């Protein structure tokens, strides 16, 4: 179908409507040539026997009624090859690093098919990130989708970079020849040039670029292109994971910009909006991205996703974090208060969660006491947090000795456990032992989430005595 | 999906427009809710609107590349499921296509345009007749029994739409599901397979008041907020509060004969967990694999949205079929919010006038239609069966005032409110005891008295009172601190703490604690009550409250949950408490 139409009837925001006299497939790719010779790409959003609605990725400015519209006859494809590693591409998949053209081994439609649940393998292998707040408390598992919930001006990018830099799987350490390789796919949507530089500098400094594929849609690139960027990134990820056996870590930032783009298109189509003007199908749309993480039985690779989103007004009931949280397998919260206290990374573990953690830790995976220790740390920190409110009212003296211990614990937990700096890579053993060191400042009887056997083995006796003496 | 077996085409139309899952066609003779095949690839869809010459269709598969001008074929039949042996131990998508068969046909990723019958048409089953030639049978009657899995006997019923009559031929032996096993003098033939339209409830004689609890093995549910066999419950909660774990626990341990688990628009990995876990788990009562009583329906969030809309109906129709055999069925739908959102999505593509928050105006009606299909029933054949429907609700932002939660609460009689605060401090199951309720308690009390222990309701009431008192006292503590309270109230707080930590908390991942039989639930509570009574006495005798709460045995109250031989442990603990307290005065 190479027929050209000069039948544009309406241009509205990112949408172009054109009359056609032959059937056009839904989702089909379109090329629009403007009078001054530029070519814009787009996609069919609605197709009827008389007209089609086209969503133009590169913006509609400069398109007029005389522009020609050509339908490619197929849906948007991503050219795929292992050679993509080390390359930097634009948000619509064109190389922007000055390197050679991509010679694909194959092309795949970017709208990925759903993985059949019976073909999935339940993710159980732990990824060590070297960050205590994650490894110890909210363990990341290969094949998981674990977003970072952040706010404007918080160091979520530093944390993402730290994870990308340090992530390793225990298997790699043991038999480095045997294990699958790690690859990082970085999909940037609407981030500023400065942020982009920060990422690129870090990638180049640490040599991570050669095992990465970068997709860059910057803040001043067309918003509609953002709806394509994550799909290109994930199609590449699936190819590398399930065809080439890589363990792929996909970092998508910032999902909030992606959702804004969805809303823009929805508004231009005059759709009935859902909450806060976002389209009613946003849950389904986000799910078709996030659900592309996972493992498949009989394949060695895996796709792990860390989407980053900035919550407007730090409000996690806003539709973007809310719908995300319902799809992803947990979330990591970046906290403004902790950040202002100078804690690095400022992860608030209380609302954070990793849903796959329970099945990927413990004996045979990490260490047998991992689950109990994490639970106890949670409970104790939560109790300390509660008491802080009380202290503000009644003062520390009015509290019992037990309560004071919890308060001290909460402070120590933030300052020693969570605080580690963006450059420190803590091993898992170190994280777990640190946890015990903190727990040992509480009386043994208080550790009701931990199996007695573990208390026997890991509880550090001196700590509590020391403390008891100073308390006397 | 059953339509693979329905080949008749009553008419053909032509696609007029395509927009996501909504396709319109012209020149199609169709009734509302007819199943149609769309486009050159024959994608399955359902008629949802007819206006003039235009028929609107929701398509159960991806519509990329489908173009106007392609044909639409009408089967002339409403969306139906296949009912017959082979449904247990299976996993289906939202329109009853077996996912394992689809995997064989098209690999790890779900392609489209592939159809497969809901039950295997080739496989033969051992049919053991229950009637003889000459017997009169009516719709709903059992004509034979098929051993379907090791725990469930599948009863072959006269389909409800039949006239019924005298049996003129009765077979015995192995047959495929479509072969006739009983012939009636009316000329009607009965096979092991029958079809039923999913949007229509299967007929019964009458609905009865449920009086037996559905034992879940979860202390907070059995102990405080029980659901009846044939009851309805909603589990609303923000993300991360443990809806899915609670649903899984119920699917694993509830003492229903059959479990239908509908994963509606949820995570792929969660369904995989169920698929991998259940075959390995044993039913605590029978010792047989749990999977042999379970039917799974998985329509994950990235699978087509129209099939998500229908998966809840597919699930409840299968549940009704087993109910007709006289079984107690538990249906879990996780999550009904995703189902409601699917309705919203389709509705907005139809450009219908939206109701609250963009949901269609018929949301409340659809929800109540669904929950009304649950209940304890007298079946056509005189047997009794029940469907307990437990729906998870995922309110946006955890705000229970949103339309799906509110409309659900108007219908269901159990409300298990999940609480993000409790989840944050890892109190699981994070069901808030102050907000939750069960309207079944009164009608179930006689059962507890008779089958567990006479004092069950009283002990429960005691626990509820302590927890109520605690929440009042906590407000004061927030202001003045714990030490400012009188001694007896400090003790109450301590007792309440043990009820919370030792009794209400339950570790789903602990081998022993994951299931707690009603007897143990009761015993554990009496131990805490014993502690309460004894400490009150000690306090009266003048022992300072700090010493009382410090006794060594007390912390053991938090370890009762993980004891396998709990009877001995609890007995010993009670005497230890008494002894240690008496040493103090």
Count every helix of chain B, treating DSSP H or I runs of 4 or more residues as helices: 15
Question: Strand sequence of the main sheet of chain A, in spatial order?
Answer: 9-16-15-17-19-14-20-21
CATH class of the largest domain in chain B: Alpha Beta
Biggest interface: chains and residue counts?
A-B, 86 and 79 residues
- The CATH topology of the largest domain in chain A: Rossmann fold
User: Whole-number radius of gyration of chain B?
Assistant: 27 Å
* CATH superfamily heading of the largest domain in chain B: P-loop containing nucleotide triphosphate hydrolases
CATH top-level class of the largest domain in chain A = Alpha Beta
The biggest beta sheet of chain A is recorded as:
8 strands, mixed
Derived from helix and strand composition plus strand pairing, the structural class of chain B reads alpha+beta
| Major sheet of chain B | 10 strands, mixed
Shape of chain A: elongated
Average pLDDT of chain B, rounded to a whole number, is: 90
Shape of chain B: globular
CATH architecture of the largest domain in chain B: 3-Layer(aba) Sandwich
Verbal overview:
The complex is a heterodimer of chains A (472) and B (585). Chain A has 472 residues and is an alpha/beta fold. In chain A, 34% of the residues lie in helices and 23% in strands. Chain A folds into three domains: 4-75, Elongation Factor Tu (Ef-tu), domain 3; 78-359, Rossmann fold (3-Layer(aba) Sandwich), CATH 3.40.50; 370-471, Bovine Mitochondrial F1-ATPase, ATP Synthase Beta Chain, Chain D, domain3 (Orthogonal Bundle). In chain A, the strands form five sheets. Chain A has an eight-stranded mixed sheet with strand order 9-16-15-17-19-14-20-21, with helices on both faces. A seven-stranded antiparallel sheet of chain A has the order 1-7-4-5-6-3-2, with no helix packed on it. In chain A, strands 8-10 form a two-stranded antiparallel ribbon. Chain B has 585 residues and is of the alpha+beta class. In chain B, the strands form five sheets. In chain B, strands 8, 18, 19, 20, 21, 22, 23, 24, 25 and 26 form a ten-stranded mixed sheet that branches. Chains A and B meet through β5, β11, α7, α8 and β21 of A and β1, α1, α4, α6 and α9 of B. β5 (39-48) of chain A pairs antiparallel with β1 of chain B, so a sheet runs across the interface.
């Amino acid at each position: 179908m190479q027929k050209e139409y000069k039948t544009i009837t309406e241009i509205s925001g990112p949408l172009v409507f054109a009359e056609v006299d032959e059937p056009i497939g839904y989702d089909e790719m379109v090329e629009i040539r403007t009078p001054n010779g530029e070519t814009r790409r787009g996609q069919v959003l609605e197709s009827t026997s008389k007209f089609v609605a086209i969503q133009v990725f590169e913006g509609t400015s400069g398109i007029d009624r005389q522009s020609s519209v050509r339908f490619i006859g197929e849906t948007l494809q991503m050219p795929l090859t292992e050679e993509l590693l080390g390359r930097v591409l634009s948000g619509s998949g064109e190389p922007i690093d000055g390197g050679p053209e991509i010679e694909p081994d194959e092309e795949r439609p970017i709208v990925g098919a759903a993985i059949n649940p019976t073909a999935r393998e339940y993710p159980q292998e732990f990824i060590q990130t070297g960050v205590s707040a994650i490894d110890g408390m909210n363990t990341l598992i290969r094949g998981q989708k674990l977003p970072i919930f952040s706010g404007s001006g918080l160091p979520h990018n530093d944390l993402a970079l730290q994870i990308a830099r340090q992530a390793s799987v225990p298997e790699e350490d043991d038999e480095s020849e045997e294990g699958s390789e790690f690859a990082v796919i970085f999909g940037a949507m609407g981030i500023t040039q400065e942020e982009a530089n920060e990422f690129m500098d870090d990638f180049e400094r640490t040599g991570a670029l050669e095992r990465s594929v970068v997709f860059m849609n910057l803040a001043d690139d067309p918003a509609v292109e953002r709806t394509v960027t994550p799909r290109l990134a994930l199609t590449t990820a699936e190819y590398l994971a399930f065809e080439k056996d890589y363990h792929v870590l996909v970092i998508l930032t910032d999902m909030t910009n992606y959702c804004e783009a969805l809303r823009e298109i929805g508004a231009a189509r005059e759709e009935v909006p859902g909450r806060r003007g976002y389209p009613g199908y946003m849950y389904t749309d986000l799910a078709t991205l996030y659900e592309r993480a996972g493992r498949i039985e009989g394949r060695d690779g895996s796709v792990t996703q860390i989407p980053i989103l900035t919550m407007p007004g730090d409000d996690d009931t806003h539709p973007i974090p809310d719908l995300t949280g319902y799809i992803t397998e947990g979330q990591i919260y970046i906290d403004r208060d902790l950040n202002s206290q100078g804690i690095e990374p400022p992860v608030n573990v209380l609302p954070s969660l990793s849903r796959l953690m329970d099945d990927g830790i413990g004996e045979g995976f990490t260490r047998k006491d991992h689950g109990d220790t994490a639970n106890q740390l949670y409970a104790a920190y939560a109790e300390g947090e509660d008491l802080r409110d009380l202290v503000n009212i009644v003062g520390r003296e009015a509290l019992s000795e037990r309560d004071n211990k919890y308060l001290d614990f909460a402070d120590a937990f933030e300052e020693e456990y969570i605080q580690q700096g963006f450059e420190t890579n803590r091993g898992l053993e170190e994280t777990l032992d640190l946890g015990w060191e903190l727990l040992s400042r509480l009386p043994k009887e208080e550790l009701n989430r931990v199996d007695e056997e573990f208390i026997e083995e890991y509880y550090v006796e001196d700590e509590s005595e020391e403390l008891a003496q100073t308390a006397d | 999906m059953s339509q693979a077996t329905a080949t008749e085409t009553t008419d053909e139309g032509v696609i007029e427009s395509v927009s996501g899952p909504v396709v319109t066609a012209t020149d199609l003779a169709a009734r509302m809710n007819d199943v149609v095949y769309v486009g050159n690839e024959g994608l399955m869809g359902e008629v949802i609107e007819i206006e003039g010459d235009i028929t609107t269709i929701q398509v159960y598969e991806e519509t990329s590349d489908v173009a106007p001008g392609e044909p639409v074929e009408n089967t002339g039949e409403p969306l139906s499921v296949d009912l017959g042996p082979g449904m247990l131990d299976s996993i289906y998508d939202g329109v009853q296509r077996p996912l394992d068969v689809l995997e064989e046909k098209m690999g790890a990723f779900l392609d489209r345009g592939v159809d497969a019958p809901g039950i295997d048409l080739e496989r033969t089953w051992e049919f053991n007749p229950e009637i003889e030639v000459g017997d009169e049978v009516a719709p709903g009657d059992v004509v034979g029994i098929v051993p379907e899995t090791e725990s469930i006997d599948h009863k072959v019923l006269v389909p409800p739409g039949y006239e019924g009559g005298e049996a003129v031929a009765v077979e015995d032996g192995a047959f495929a599901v479509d072969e006739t096993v009983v012939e009636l003098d009316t000329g009607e033939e009965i096979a092991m397979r029958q079809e039923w339209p999913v949007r229509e409830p299967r007929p019964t004689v009458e609905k009865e008041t449920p009086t037996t609890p559905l034992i879940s093995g979860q202390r907070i549910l059995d102990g405080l907020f029980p659901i009846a066999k044939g009851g309805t419950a909603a589990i609303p909660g923000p993300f991360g509060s443990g809806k899915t774990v609670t649903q899984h626990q119920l699917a694993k341990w509830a003492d229903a004969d059959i479990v239908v688990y509908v994963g509606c628009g949820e995570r792929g990995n969660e369904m995989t967990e169920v698929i991998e876990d259940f075959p390995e788990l044993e039913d605590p009562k029978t010792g047989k694999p749990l999977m042999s009583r379970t039917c799974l329906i998985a329509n994950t969030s990235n699978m087509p949205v129209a099939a998500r809309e229908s998966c809840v109906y597919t699930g409840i129709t299968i549940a009704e079929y087993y109910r007709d055999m006289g079984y107690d069925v538990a249906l879990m739908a996780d999550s009904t919010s995703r189902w409601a959102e699917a309705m919203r999505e389709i509705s907005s593509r139809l450009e219908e006038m939206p109701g609250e928050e963009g949901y269609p105006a018929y949301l409340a009606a659809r929800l109540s239609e669904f929950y009304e299909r649950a209940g304890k029933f007298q079946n056509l054949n005189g047997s009794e069966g029940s469907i307990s429907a437990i729906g998870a609700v995922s309110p946006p932002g955890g705000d229970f005032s949103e339309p799906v939660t509110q409309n659900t609460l108007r219908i269901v009689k159990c409300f298990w409110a999940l609480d993000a605060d409790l989840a944050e401090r890892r109190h699981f199951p994070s069901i808030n005891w102050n907000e939750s309720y069960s309207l079944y308690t009164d009608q179930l009390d006689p059962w507890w008295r008779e089958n567990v222990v006479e004092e069950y309701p009283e002990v429960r009431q005691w626990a509820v009172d302590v927890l109520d008192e605690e929440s009042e006292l906590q407000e004061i503590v927030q202001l003045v601190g714990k030490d400012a309270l009188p001694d007896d109230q400090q003790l109450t707080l301590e007792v309440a703490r043990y009820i919370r930590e030792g009794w209400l908390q339950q570790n789903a991942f602990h081998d022993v604690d994951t299931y707690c039989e009603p007897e143990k639930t009761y015993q554990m509570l009496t131990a805490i009550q014993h502690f309460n009574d004894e400490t009150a006495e000690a306090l009266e005798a003048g022992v300072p409250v700090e010493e009382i709460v410090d006794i060594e045995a007390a912390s053991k109250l938090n370890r009762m949950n993980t004891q396998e031989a709990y009877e001995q442990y609890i007995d010993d603990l009670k005497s230890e408490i008494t002894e240690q307290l008496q040493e103090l005065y």
